[in-house]
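Appendix B, Record 12. Input sequence as logged:
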Amino acid sequence: MKIPQSVVTAGIVIVVLIVSYLLLVTSPKGHYPNFANCLTEHNVSMYGAFWCTHCADQKNLFGDSWNLVKYTECSTPDGKSKTQECKDAGIESYPTWQFGDGTRYVGPLTLEELSTRTGCAIDPQE
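Logged structural output:
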């Protein structure tokens, strides 16, 4: 008995989804307290919004150390407006990284890019 191609394709898609989910759930969370603290000491902050997927990706890079990074939530709780603090700061897009020298970068940055811009060492902790 020959299995229809559509059934084979559906089976492959299901296996890929299951494996992807398991990798996501079981992947170790980042733990970079020294790096996060260094960013804060260098007056680095991120402006973002709770509904912003790129912002969520940035937070996930830091794992359980994200709470050590200076962050400003720009969205009102209903997700329909911008907070006055972010309006006053001229924030137009998320994420927006602001550095101690006043420069800004709009868009996501890797840990390596943040390290290069700040001189902070990426020092994962056990």
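Residues 13 and 119 are 43 Å apart (CA to CA).
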